[in-house]
Amino acid sequence: MIQLIDTIITIFLRDLIPHNSFFNFVFSFLSLNRFSLAIWVAIIIITTIIEEIHHPGIQKRDKKFIFYFILIFCIQLITVNYVLKPLIHRPRPFQPPRDFIASSTFNYPIIPINTCPADFSFPSGHAATAFTAAFVLSYFDKKRRWFYYLIAVFISFSRIYLGCHYFFDVVFGGLIGSLITWITLKVKYPITKRV
């Protein structure tokens, strides 16, 4: 029953935006395996420049922030890709076995390029990474948190649009990334508002 609900929501969201050359390019661009991380690297660099303008000189807390940012990414990467995915073993929407609805709608990824890895589907690594980055940056820079979370939502949605993930894969990926980040920050680095 849960699989059926997940599939129906996934199909609805996947078809919510027209599949044309423009949106295919946009969501493929956001969803490239290395580029989604590159987006966050660019955002971090820009945020660092803004911080440097307002607070010249590398502060001790800035060094801590960078250290824990890397630490959280490593914890999230290991948890999602090397623990949860192999443990849960859920096929992607375009891979067998599928239920009847999924079989009739997910015969292949929407975009015929290597945007969907061959590993397991649950939870979404892209969503986990996106919300990990958004959570850390928002915790550090509350004034721009809406922007960080908007980017995370777009990256996560791209995985559904392209047919690489089910809805619940993306939701739980985002939740897991956020939870890992929240626990690590609370235990290790109680960041206060800077900007």
From TrEMBL:
Pfam families registered for this protein in UniProt: PAP2
Spans through the membrane: 35-53, 65-84, 146-162, 168-185
Keywords: Membrane, Transmembrane, Transmembrane helix
Signal peptide: none
Keyword Oxidoreductase annotated: no
Residue ranges annotated for the Phosphatidic acid phosphatase type 2/haloperoxidase domain, each copy included: 65-185
The name this protein goes by in its record: Phosphatidic acid phosphatase type 2/haloperoxidase domain-containing protein
Phylogenetic classification of the source organism: Bacteria, Candidatus Roizmaniibacteriota
